[in-house]
Design goal:
661 residues; alpha+beta; ten-stranded mixed sheet; four-stranded antiparallel sheet; 13 helices
Length: 661
């Protein structure tokens, strides 16, 4: 087994020994896990540069990672299921997304939220996988070897892309706080800095003597291989590319093996091997959000859901809001947090089924390698509208020519959460991200879709363990007219005062980084033909008509979208808004409330009926919400425990808008 040692450094009660239903209290285990993977195993052959990592006499490559486990204090009272939560930038998203827990700082105790997973009896696991998470931050990380050749460390070109939301003269060469790839030569004459009005606009090369690798220190410019400095300043809303050479290539694909092998260890390992879950786990599932949803898609693409002994690791997976993309998870000089359009994030394939791209001749599917192993897991792709507007979402189930719907495999479900944004919606309404500083033209989307995720997990478990088929896929389609070009919905939004589609729209193209997957030799890449952009159709209010529609969409108080536009305060006014500081960060949506009264509607020229014209009273509105919620419960897209939460949020929305009126 690839896990050679599981070191437990901490064992403590979880949530102050709180008892969760019939399962009782939980405990939290933390530690370090050590791996040794065999280069001779076929399952490891697709990991970029693994053969260049240092090996022991047995031909094994060693690495280690942080790990964490939440488990019932009395395992026999649990449900004997493992839920492996894929970390997002060193933090686990599952408690926030399934337990509705609040965000906590990395060094603070985990919050159980509503206790859903604990009441269900799940053992929840985490494993550090991101090599560039900084040390001593409380974030979980992996420590991987570096690829070397007989000539020494590997060097090569890299591109770092950033979009400032405020004026600055200095930019760090990494996303947020992650470790940067430093330039190997401060005065490199071949290094290049370009500026664009948006990511598809012409590039303007900034003269080399106008910028340098450096930063400000007490008002003085000092050389720094991990920063760029430009005295004239970086303009908010502009897109900047720094193209330079770096040296030192961590074998980052080990992160995928760590996930595979620790998941396998918890499922199959024995007590003698040090497995704290020995003789307990009967089924294992995995969940990932955004970056970690793309991680799971890449994990499946590489056929890694079978371990070195060819045993299935995860019986079911839920890649949430990953769009049609993969990520820089098995790439030399990988930037796993990057979501730039011109990145290996956006390479073919996008759909689960095998298809051939007529432009390139490439043939592959997300599950092609898994299918060749003869034992497919159950997969639930869950998307919001944001992934259709800026994440290849439609290419998961529509062919790359945009001309036909694809047949979804029997083992797969695709659920589009209609009218929702990429992150969980927030209330009260706000138009600014306090952490990142990004501001939208409209308030962000307020829809809390987490009840849909809880139902998805319950349905996945029944599907795997009892053979009870999960509810049908629900997503935009060509054959019923619910998947349309964005131009088809433009007039609807233009008619709403103060609201129109982003300009320009985000579009994706084919890229050629060179002949060897995982090693970019053409930097920047050659840009080929664009892919089709298809989005969900909308009604006369601008609300979507397809997917799983929560009562906030079917009994609406506002137009709810998966996109927003940048406010003039942060530059790039009217362009697609994302809150991650880059061209493809966290895409947020919009909440455009209906006028409160008929008089207000007429005064503003708003074509949408007012709240007062739609609903006779607060009670009338909430009764309609209740009926819509019950219909979703009957269809198994919601759980029977959800109505109180949904009605409570709907009441808050109604009271806010009536108060505004």
């Amino acid at each position: 087994m690839a896990v050679t040692k599981l070191l437990i450094t901490s064992r403590r009660p979880f949530a102050q020994e709180k008892a969760f239903g019939n399962v009782g209290p939980y405990e939290q285990l933390d530690g370090t896990v050590y791996f040794a993977v065999d280069l001779r195993r076929l399952a490891n052959h697709l990991i970029t540069d693994l053969k260049l990592a240092p090996q022991d006499p047995k031909g094994q490559v060693h690495f280690s990672a942080d790990w964490r486990l939440l488990r019932p204090l009395e395992p026999q009272r649990g449900n004997h299921r493992l839920l492996f939560d894929i970390l997002n930038r060193g933090r686990g998203p599952v408690l926030r997304n399934l337990n509705s827990a609040p965000d906590v700082a990395p060094n603070e105790p985990l919050d159980p939220g509503n206790g859903f997973l604990m009441r269900q009896g799940y053992t929840v696991a985490w494993c550090g996988w991101q090599h560039d998470v900084p040390e001593a931050t409380g974030l979980m990380r992996i420590r991987v070897p570096e690829a070397v050749t007989p000539e020494g460390p590997i060097s090569g070109k890299i591109i770092v892309i950033f979009v400032p939301d405020a004026p600055t003269t200095t930019q760090y060469l990494a996303d947020r706080i992650h470790r940067a790839y430093p330039t190997h030569k401060l005065d490199d004459p071949d290094a290049m800095l370009t500026e664009q009005d948006h990511e598809d606009a012409p590039e303007r090369r900034i003269p080399r003597d106008k910028w340098c690798f450096g930063r400000l220190d007490n008002g003085r410019v000092v050389p720094d291989a991990a920063h760029v400095y430009m005295a004239s300043g970086f303009v908010p809303g502009k897109v900047y590319q720094v193209i330079y050479s770096t040296i030192g290539a961590p074998v980052v694909g080990c992160r995928l093996l760590a996930t595979r092998d620790l998941g396998s260890f918890f499922k199959y390992g024995t007590a003698a091997q040090g497995n704290p879950c020995a003789d307990d786990i009967e089924y294992a599932y995995s969940f990932g959000v955004s970056q970690s949803g793309r991680f799971l898609r890449h994990f499946l693409y590489l056929g890694l859901n079978h371990d070195e002994q060819n045993r299935m690791v995860f019986d079911g997976l839920i890649p949430h809001v990953g769009g049609g993309k993969h990520g820089e998870f098995n790439q030399r000089f990988a930037q796993p947090s990057s979501q730039a359009s011109r990145s290996p994030n956006n390479l073919f394939p996008y759909s689960d089924v095998t298809q051939t791209d007529p432009e390139t001749g490439h043939t592959m599917g997300l599950l092609s390698r898994q299918a060749s192993q003869g034992n497919l897991p159950k997969v639930m792709h869950t998307y919001t509208s944001s992934e259709y507007w800026a994440g290849h979402g439609a290419l998961e189930h529509i062919d790359v020519t945009g001309s036909r719907d694809l047949e979804v495999p029997e083992s797969v479900r695709i659920y589009h959460f209609g009218g929702c944004q990429h992150p969980v919606g927030a209330f009260p309404l706000q138009d600014k991200d306090a952490r990142q500083g990004a501001r939208g033209q409209q308030p962000f989307n307020w829809t809390d879709y987490r009840p849909l995720l809880r139902a998805a997990l319950v349905n996945l478990d029944r599907w795997v363990t009892a053979g009870e088929a999960a509810p049908p896929s629900k997503h935009p389609r060509l054959d019923d007219g619910t998947a349309v070009p964005p131009e088809r919905v433009a007039d609807t939004f233009k008619a709403i005062p103060g609201m129109k589609l982003p300009t320009p729209l985000r579009r994706f193209a084919r890229f050629d980084f060179g002949p060897q997957e995982g090693i970019a030799t053409i930097v920047p890449p050659k840009v080929g033909a664009p892919y089709p952009l298809l989005v969900p159709a909308v009604d006369q209010d601008g609300n979507e008509v397809c997917g799983i529609l929560l009562p906030y969409q079917t009994v609406p108080l506002a137009t709810l979208t998966g996109w927003n536009t940048r406010h003039s305060d942060i530059g790039g006014a009217g362009q697609t808004l994302s809150t991650g500081g880059g061209t493809g960060g966290t895409l947020v949506g919009s909440t455009k409330p209906f006028p409160a009264t008929r008089e207000a509607r007429q005064l503003s020229g708003d074509p949408r009926l007012s709240v007062a014209e739609r609903y006779a009273s607060r009670e009338d509105y909430l009764e309609r919400v209740s009926k819509a919620t019950e219909a979703l419960i009957q269809a198994r897209y919601l759980l029977a425990e959800d109505p109180e939460e949904i009605l409570g949020q709907a009441a808050q929305h109604y009271d806010l808008l009536r108060h505004r009126g």
